[in-house]
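Collaborator request, handled under Task 6.
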Amino acid sequence: MNWLLVIAGAMVGAPLRYLTDRAVQSRHDSVFPWGTFAINVSGCLILGLLTGAAAAGAASSHLQLLLGTGLCGALTTYSTFSYETLRLAETGAGLYALANIAGSVTAGLGAAFLGVSIAGAVWS
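Structure tokens returned to the collaborator:
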């Protein structure tokens, strides 16, 4: 049963990632990978909310599998972040590559902490 929850979450997360990336990137005339950035930060926020809810006893292990492992696992992407950062550096956009690294890590961690804080305020 657990693997079905992961698959169900991933079936939503993977196409959501692709569609969101295309929608965000089409609105920016920049080499910066705004789509991947937005997706990864959003995924960190979702996972933070879920982690905070689980810590407060408001999220079951099944919900963690569905949303955390399945949805967020398929939605967020470290490999695309790495690839896009490498491509920026290789094409002479080194400052964008550094901004992508610093911004993604900072915003991702901030979003995760924010999610945990919001969940703690709501469910404590």
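The cover message to the collaborator said: "The helical segments are 2-26, 34-55, 61-75, 78-90, 94-123. The mean pLDDT is 97. Please let us know whether this matches your experimental observations."
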